[in-house]
Design goal:
alpha+beta; 3-stranded mixed beta sheet; two-stranded antiparallel sheet; 5 strands; binds zinc ion
Length: 139
């Protein structure tokens, strides 16, 4: 399980003063070598609103849209530092999700919500949950 280090204040100062988001990623990999799982380009075409929300977020922040970052699952209450990492990536145009929320379509590798995450977001009346995109589904 992930938790905050004892010198969390130092760590937060260090990452907030890092020269680039690449440096932030290096510090994160040193502290939490198993946290970062993968990058996905965007959400599946089935979930256009999720992509739209992300576009709006980037427009508001005046940053270029980057990629979806998948983190290992962590406990929100015990991981202030991990939340700070997620925040900094978000401010740089990334969308950060945990692996219990998002997974890649087996066929096209675009992001799909897990069943649990699907139940939380308002898509129930639009499409049924599926383990792959509608257009990728084998006949
Ligand atoms: Zn697909």
């Amino acid at each position: 399980m992930y938790s905050d280090p004892n010198n969390i204040e130092d760590c937060i100062n260090k990452i907030k003063n890092a020269p680039s988001i690449g440096d932030v990623k290096k510090i994160m990999d040193d502290l939490y070598p198993t946290l970062f799982i993968t990058l996905l380009d965007e959400y599946s075409d089935d979930y256009t609103d999720l992509n739209k929300n992300w576009n709006t977020m980037c427009d508001n922040l005046k940053v270029k849209k980057q990629k979806i970052i998948i983190f290992d699952n962590y406990d929100n209450d015990k991981c202030t530092l991990i939340k700070t990492f997620a925040e900094l990536f978000t401010l740089s145009g990334f969308l950060v999700r945990c692996k219990n929320e998002i997974f890649p379509c087996f066929f096209c590798n675009k992001a799909l919500p897990s069943k649990d995450f699907y139940d939380l977001i308002k898509y129930k009346n639009i499409i049924n949950w599926s383990p792959c995109c509608i257009k990728c589904k084998p006949i």
